[in-house]
Hints:
Number of helices: 13
Oligomer: single chain
Bound molecules: S-adenosylmethionine
Radius of gyration: 21 Å
Amino acid sequence: MKSEPSGHIPVLLREIINFLVTDTNGIYFDGTLGDGGYTKALLKKLDSHGKVIAVDWDEKSVEYSEKWASPETRRGRLSIHRANFCEIKEVLSIHKISAVNGIVLDVGLSSRQLDTGERGFSHRLDGPLDMRMDNRMTDSVSHIVSKYSEKDLKEIFFKYGEERGSAKLARILIRERQRQTIVTTNDLVTIMKKYWRPKFFVKSASRIFQALRIAVNHELENLEKFLEICWDLLLPGGRIAVVSYHSLEDRIVKNIYRKHQDPCICHRQVPVCQCGKIPDAKIITKKPVRASSEEKIINPRSRSAKLRVAEKIEIIREDS
Ligand SMILES: C[S@@+](CC[C@H](N)C(=O)[O-])C[C@H]1O[C@@H](n2cnc3c(N)ncnc32)[C@H](O)[C@@H]1O
């Protein structure tokens, strides 16, 4: 597996592989291929009958991976698709696979995406205000910034960026966009720099760019949708591992795992369960796994990472 150098250092890689691989001849789904860090490590760990199906909706990630992956795809051990991870069922059905042994997601941005100015993800690099991970989507961030109402902009900045200056920036953008078009990262950065004290600018700009990226890519909606679909596609004993970088994402993962482990919706005072909902998961990581201090030094992206793992359990009905 020879590959051109990737600037992306996979986060919590050892932990992911240790938690995820329960059968070295099993089938695994990597929903966020990126530069292939997890997929490569999975292939290394798996035996000859093991297989990885990997997707990414970013054309560039798929193009990059297809280069290093060709010997593995020829051997039938790896299959790469350009798709949203929410299309997992459709992708697996291409291979006539109805369930897999493990599923992994590493949501967020790859270093390749962040460091490419033309993608518009970084406030440090000039480029179009785009931030679509999948360039087949119609609206980019410049659409949000030039068309959304003050209330909606404020909500995006506050909810997805937890930025204290959300109301201020929303107000400023509404005013500024009547005077000029806001179509590049520099346009947005220049506006922010006029109103932010230099001391606070970098942190605020990072939060605002993160908020716009989450909004334009519908990241939380996709994660939630995926986690609802994927349980039916896991074999009993199979595991799902999700690495997230934002408290809102982590909350979605935590709550959906809990709902599968403890689905009963009966009132606490009802002595015997009436709803009949049966658990189909066991949470493996009681608390999220965080990067070690060594990893945080080597790879600053890992500082905010949280890994949560759950296992699918066989549903045993009392009447069966
Ligand atoms: C943090 S990177 C993954 C890095 C990868 N684990 C590695 O080690 O190289 C996240 C990747 O997920 C992709 N992605 C994000 N949301 C997606 C979605 N809904 N469907 C498919 N790919 C998605 C992004 O395009 C990006 O390439």
